[in-house]
């Protein structure tokens, strides 16, 4: 199937981007309504009021950079860390919270001066020596140590800090990253990162971004320094420590490719990893320019985690992935990592697009067309997925359901209904335009539907939004 108009003229992109910014800023800024009782008016809210994870993130400031200096010893499972968090106050602050689950806090400074702090569950409340004023940039340093914990998600899956046969693994969707560093752990506050990790001799530490240095300490340990320049949501941050074979190659375009493979997975993953450059080219052709400055993969042992994850730059795979999973996680670099949900309610924008990428790839490989996949799901989807029609993609039932079938499969069906409505040329303009308009930023479902309507002003999307995106139950067959 020809898809000619993949490249959107810059003028169109700019026009679309401007339209979007205009109707997109409603949720920015501080929300007084989020403050809990017992705090005075200048204390930042302990959560951002996410509809699914209300305590995630914190009010009153925006982080621009995390500088993490970590040392980890698998023997004894001990992590020591210093987090330097650069942020700007969005209101006057006599106190503000960071999210940190477990670990012991040893010292907190703000602007280089000791700050008082206390802890209550995942909230680390910091009282700077002087009130911060709205607009002020400030640096918080937290020294901490301990055995980081695994976090059990509402759906029963494990994230946070996971012990592995030869080290440890940090996975953060949706709230796991607070297990290994303090921060504003909500997808709406993205930041750049520098992560320096020292591990015992013989082990490798892999994180996001590019490897800036690798050196040996005076006592023979190894220090790996990773730099992530593009904004990253904390759930997409990762750290994998183990006996990985780390290789750095580059694509034809000169993009660095860092691939870390557990030696037990080398043979099984060789073929699929060799197709990563092809998957990247395919994704760029369909979705527009790749948003980051390196790519790659982390392939660990199958038992080390229960799922793959779109960790930024280099997705995590528990064992050699199949090609379609590689395509899914690659697509997430555009949808999820670059264009990040404003809240966990917008999860279908990640999984709907990543699942739809699987359908498109399958179609391009000569398998079922996306239209066939859609029709089969509509007619017989419940045979494979009992819960396919159990809730609408844009309104997951509860936090335990944000990664259920309706978010993935029915989310992809929404995308396909849009393609059916606008035709291929407009559809690919729209997909690329969406990725470009919110590149390195956040977006919610309302911004998406507004964007689609602007991109195809003559089409009628009411039934797609009301029945497919927000409506309960199986949408009626269209005439
Ligand atoms: N986002 C992952 C994927 O589709 C799946 C996943 C892993 C997930 N952990 C999660 C989804 C936690 C929601 C919440 O590749
Ligand atoms: Zn996914």
First-to-last CA distance? 25 Å
Q: Please work out how many helical segments DSSP would assign.
A: 10
CATH fold category name of the largest domain: Neutral Protease, domain 2
Q: Which ligands, by name, code or SMILES, are bound?
A: tryptophan, zinc ion
The profile of the biggest β sheet is: 8 strands, mixed
CATH superfamily of the largest domain: Neutral Protease Domain 2
Number of distinct beta strands: 22
Helix % is: 25-40%
Give me the Rg, rounded: 22 Å
Overall structural domain count: 2
Mean pLDDT reading: 92
Biggest sheet: strands side by side, in what order? 5-4-8-2-1-12-15-14
CATH architecture of the largest domain: Orthogonal Bundle
Strand content: 25-35%
- Which ranges are low-confidence, i.e. pLDDT below 50, for 5 or more consecutive residues? 1-38
**Helical/strand content category:** alpha+beta
Overall 3D shape: globular
| CATH class membership of the largest domain | Mainly Alpha
